[in-house]
Amino acid sequence: MSTLSTHVLDTSTGRPAEGLSLTLEARTTDGLFLEIARGVTNADGRVKDLSGANTKLQPGVYRLTFDTGAWFQARGQRGFYPSVQVLFEVTATDEHYHVPLLLSPFGFSTYRGS
Fold first, then answer.
1. Around 17, how many Cα atoms within 13 Å sit in the side-chain half-sphere?
2. Contacts of 85 (CB under 8 A, 6+ apart)
3. For 38-55, how does the pLDDT look when each residue is reduced to its tens digit (9 = 90+)?
4. pLDDT, tens digit (0-9, with 9 covering 90-100), for 58-110
5. Among 25, 38, 71, 92, which residue's Cβ finds the most Cβ atoms within 10 Å?
């Protein structure tokens, strides 16, 4: 079964985004999203196995929501994006999915990592 990890870097400082909260949701057959996991990035800006031992990813569409507004606010900064949502599709059940986020107060980028 597929697993999921993420890594968040603050590109404005060149440092990991420690303490950033995020949620993982799965799209249901009726098109709604159902929360299946929560996480907080560690000192290296990572959540190594967001899906956890009890929540392996099945084929389908998922949404990661990063609480960037609260994270910047906790650091005395103001960001333009109160949250960042990344939708992605799991197709292969035997692969690991890594979804990094490069973040600054006024921009972000993401990609499928390894």
1. 29
2. 63, 64, 65, 66
3. 999 999 999 987 766 556
4. 899 999 999 999 999 999 999 999 999 999 999 988 888 999 999 999 999 99
5. 71
